[in-house]
Write a structure and sequence with these properties.
This protein is about 65% helix and about 0% strand. It is an all-alpha fold and about 260 residues long. It has a single domain, classed as Glycerol uptake facilitator protein (Up-down Bundle), CATH 1.20.1080. The chain starts with 18 loop residues before the first helix and ends with a helix. The N terminus and C terminus are likely disordered.
Length: about 260
């Protein structure tokens, strides 16, 4: 059994670079992610106008593929968060400062909004066109909690068990799959939610629907943090086995 690694779920990247470069990486990564989400949604609606299921498949595949590539590109620089909830979990773990957390989130939101504008312009749409797609129901809100909890568990489950190299692929697969098994199509990201209000297209969300999505995503982050601390924090032999610290190494390993 792999010993649990005491590592942050993403951290701020393996390459020691100044904050300004990390912020640019977060803004650019989030922006390109939004380009993929909105752009593929528009293209899907044009290629398959009469088949919503196929539109969703095309949107999910493009988003998952882009997300894998973006994490591989920017992960070593900034941690490849592209998501305020991911950054907030890092702050709760103490692996990023409060100042840097705030700046990361601002960069993600700005980058996402710019990405939405670029996506709209690429398809000859108005640069900013507020979405009219209402997404408001208990089922959708629950879906956002589930999608966010799952996303964070996927990331932590990989990194804290010594498999950081597969995080990009695991995250892409989770998000791609969650498009189909959640009724909300798995936004799971406040910056993405805000940006998607700027496009009246397949991937859009009405501005009045966005606040509850964000609240549910933050709630999912809180639930995930509790689960992560419970599941992936190494424990002392006496705590994990219910015996004294004289327990054998094998019994300790088997109890984690």
């Amino acid at each position: 059994m792999t010993e649990l690694a005491e590592l942050p779920e993403t951290g701020t990247g393996d390459i020691p670079v100044e904050l300004s470069r990390r912020l640019v990486a977060e803004a650019l990564g989030t922006g390109l992610l939004i380009v993929a989400v909105i752009g593929s949604g528009i293209m899907a609606s044009r290629l398959s106008p009469s088949d919503v299921g196929l539109q969703l498949l095309e949107n999910a595949a493009a988003t998952a593929g882009a997300l894998i590539g973006l994490i591989l590109i920017f992960g070593a620089i900034s941690g490849g968060h592209f998501n305020p909830v991911v950054t907030l979990i890092d702050r709760a773990d103490g692996t990023i400062s409060t100042r840097d957390t705030g700046l990361y989130i601002v960069a993600q939101i700005i980058g996402g909004c710019l990405g939405a504008i670029v996506a709209n312009l690429m398809f000859d749409l108005p640069a900013v066109e507020w979405s009219t797609t209402t997404r408001s129901s208990g089922a959708l809100w629950l879906s956002e909690v589930v999608a966010t909890v799952g996303l964070l568990l996927v990331i932590h489950g990989c990194v804290r068990t010594g498999r950081a190299g597969v995080v990009a692929f695991a995250v892409g697969l989770w998000i791609g799959g969650a498009y189909f098994f959640t009724s909300s199509t798995s936004f799971a990201n406040p910056a993405v939610t805000i940006a998607r209000t700027l496009s009246n297209s397949f991937a859009g969300i009405k501005p009045s629907s966005a606040p509850m999505f964000i609240v549910m995503q933050l709630l999912g982050g809180v639930i995930a943090f509790v689960l992560i601390r419970f599941l992936f924090t190494p424990r002392s032999p006496s705590t994990s086995s219910g015996t004294t610290s004289t327990s054998s190494p094998r019994s300790k390993e088997g109890s984690t």
